[in-house]
């Protein structure tokens, strides 16, 4: 017979063989014993935690010839046929490769037929979150009220992708990640059964790399056994799993403690050349510093060490650290891990993190620098006095002299002239502007900002929509640089337009304009709009909305003001009396 991987040979065949998941096993076994099984179950949790195995064991127990039983006998014809995969009444369905509504309809059509040889017809749908919306809708009614002889077992690693209408019709069981101790214990059972010698430190390395998944652990164990031959070694396990040796952790930690950044960066470069992933390195360093902190604060809890082994060198290293330093290093590594997710240059982030750790508690030599450069201190004093004088002028209401202001304004205009304002496009929007369109955009503005990426939403922090027609809107920016960056960023424009269309139901094309240019265009448009006798109706409508000023005195509405408020909204029109 062809060789089979460990995770297939040693798949649990009864609830007692399952590792962990006590809350799941006990609930299912009690339901089997007292005939309180329901028609639909949802098994959710990380990969390799026993969801499909539990579904098959539960199916065997339901159809076991000795039922009701808490454990399948694995001896009767029904149990044996399910184990072999030849039972026609237990149907395994892979939703990842059969996600269309047509496949789901085929299942639904066969649900009404009675089982051929068993008590129940059981459908195990794996990776159910991959089904399309149409397939979910087709399954919905059948899942709620199936025939008495049918049981659905849905398995998924991403339950948040399932419609709530599906989840509410199922009895849900959340599978938890396995602890390292559970994984090591299971690997010991497998190796003892296979009569293969093992090293406990090797098993710890494999369990750490498996990240809570039993299937991953047994697959890695299979690789290490195949690679090592007669006897497994720590070096073989480190090579296969991509982990790094404990001695390397010691060397880098000691280099950082001695503030020898050259040695630390050299060791990091060596690890990267050996094929180690910087993202994985950051995660391992966080775990190593956590172990140092744990053994330092609670020496008796050495069984809780995840990465390091309990030895004298590790304890001596832990005594050399201050707890505050370890806390700070863990925080630096955690932030680096988050930043790495958005970059392809992960090695640079790792090197920067090491530099931060070395310089974290370095004293700032401000006094020495000031003593070495007295002329710099004198310049700072002059600047501080200048700032105080300007603040006093502003307080007294007197601005700077009239000569430099125009010069500064002209210089600023020259600098900002890189962005070409689409005046004609803005005027076209103003001619067709409507209040419902601008209100629709403003109403959904916060929701759209919340869905954008942080880098994109940062461009809109000082921006606001000021006018809108049925197919476009004017977006005013406080700073010219943000306006230019937004207009040149095609990715931002696409994502922004799609989100806005999703929330408003209409496709609006944004037209970008700096604040200074907007004020000028708006003023010219109002003056040149040519309000004639035909605008009395618009003026009357504006007067109905606000016939009085804030002081309570009746005022006669200016036709220019009425037209401006119609186009831009009252919140964006300010009236200054000459």
Automatic annotation (TrEMBL):
Region (Disordered): 393-417, 532-558
Keywords: ATP-binding, DNA replication, DNA-directed DNA polymerase, Metal-binding, Nucleotide-binding, Nucleotidyltransferase, Transferase, Zinc
Catalytic activity line of the entry: DNA(n) + a 2'-deoxyribonucleoside 5'-triphosphate = DNA(n+1) + diphosphate
Entries under SMART domains matching the protein: AAA
Annotated family: Belongs to the DnaX/STICHEL family.
Keyword hit for ATP-binding: yes
Protein name stated in the entry: DNA-directed DNA polymerase
Pfam families: DNA_pol3_delta2, DNA_pol3_gamma3, DNAX_ATPase_lid
Top enzyme category: transferase
InterPro entries cross-referenced by the UniProt entry: AAA+_ATPase (IPR003593), ClpA/B (IPR001270), DNA_pol3_clamp-load_cplx_C (IPR008921), DNA_pol_III_gamma-3 (IPR022754), DNA_pol_III_sug/sutau_N (IPR012763), DNA_Rep/Repair_Clamp_Loader (IPR050238), HLD_clamp_pol_III_gamma_tau (IPR045085), P-loop_NTPase (IPR027417)
EC number annotated for this UniProt entry: 2.7.7.7
């Amino acid at each position: 017979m062809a060789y089979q991987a460990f995770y297939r040979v040693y798949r649990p065949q009864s609830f007692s063989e399952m590792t962990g998941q006590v809350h799941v096993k006990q609930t299912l076994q009690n339901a089997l014993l007292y005939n309180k099984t329901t028609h639909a179950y949802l098994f959710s949790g990380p990969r390799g935690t026993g969801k499909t195995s539990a579904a098959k064991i539960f199916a065997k127990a339901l159809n076991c010839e000795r039922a009701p039983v808490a454990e399948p006998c694995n001896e009767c014809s029904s149990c044996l046929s399910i184990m072999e995969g030849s039972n026609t009444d237990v149907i395994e369905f892979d939703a990842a490769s059969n996600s269309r509504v047509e496949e789901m309809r085929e299942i639904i059509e066969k649900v009404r037929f009675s089982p051929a040889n068993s008590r129940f017809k059981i459908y195990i749908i794996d990776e159910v979150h991959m089904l399309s919306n149409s397939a979910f809708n087709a399954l919905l009614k059948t899942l709620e009220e199936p025939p008495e002889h049918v049981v659905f077992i849905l398995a998924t690693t991403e339950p948040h992708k399932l419609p709530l209408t599906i989840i509410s019709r199922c009895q849900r069981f959340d599978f938890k990640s396995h602890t390292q101790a559970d994984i090591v214990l299971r690997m010991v059972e497998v190796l003892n059964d296979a009569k293969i010698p093992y090293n406990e430190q090797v098993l710890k390395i494999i369990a750490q790399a498996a990240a809570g998944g039993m299937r991953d652990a047994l697959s890695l164990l299979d690789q290490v056994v195949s690679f090592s031959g007669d006897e497994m070694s720590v070096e073989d396990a480190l090579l296969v799993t991509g982990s790094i040796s404990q001695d390397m952790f010691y060397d880098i930690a000691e280099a950082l403690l001695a503030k020898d950044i050259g040695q630390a960066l050299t060791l990091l470069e060596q690890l990267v050349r050996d094929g180690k992933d910087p993202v994985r390195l950051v995660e391992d360093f966080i775990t190593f510093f956590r172990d140092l902190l744990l053994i330092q604060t609670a020496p008796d809890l050495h069984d809780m060490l995840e990465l390091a082994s309990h030895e004298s060198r590790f304890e001596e290293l832990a005594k050399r650290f201050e707890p505050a330093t370890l806390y700070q290093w863990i925080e630096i590594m955690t932030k680096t891990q988050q930043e790495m997710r958005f970059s392809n240059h992960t090695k640079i982030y790792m090197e920067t993190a090491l530099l931060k750790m070395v310089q974290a508690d370095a004293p700032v030599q401000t006094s020495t620098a000031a003593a070495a450069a007295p002329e710099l201190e004198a310049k700072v004093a002059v600047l501080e006095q200048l700032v105080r004088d300007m603040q006093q002028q502003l307080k007294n209401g007197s601005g700077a002299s009239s000569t430099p202001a125009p010069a500064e304004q002209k210089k600023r205009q020259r600098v900002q002239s890189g962005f070409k304002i689409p005046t004609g496009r803005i005027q076209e929007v103003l001619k067709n502007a409507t209040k419902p369109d601008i209100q629709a955009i403003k109403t959904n503005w916060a929701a759209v900002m919340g869905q954008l990426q942080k880098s994109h939403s940062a461009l809109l922090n000082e921006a606001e929509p000021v006018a809108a027609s049925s197919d476009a809107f004017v977006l005013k920016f406080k700073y010219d640089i943000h306006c230019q960056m937004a207009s040149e960023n095609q990715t931002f424009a696409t994502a922004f337009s799609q989100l806005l269309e999703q929330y408003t139901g209409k496709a609006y094309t944004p037209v970008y304009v700096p604040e200074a240019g907007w004020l000028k265009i708006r003023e010219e448009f109002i003056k040149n709009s040519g309000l004639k006798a035909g605008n009395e109706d618009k003026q009357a409508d504006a007067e109905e909305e606000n016939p009085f000023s804030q002081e309570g005195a009746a005022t006669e509405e200016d036709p220019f003001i009425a037209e401006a408020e119609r186009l831009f909204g009252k919140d964006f029109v300010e009236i200054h009396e000459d």
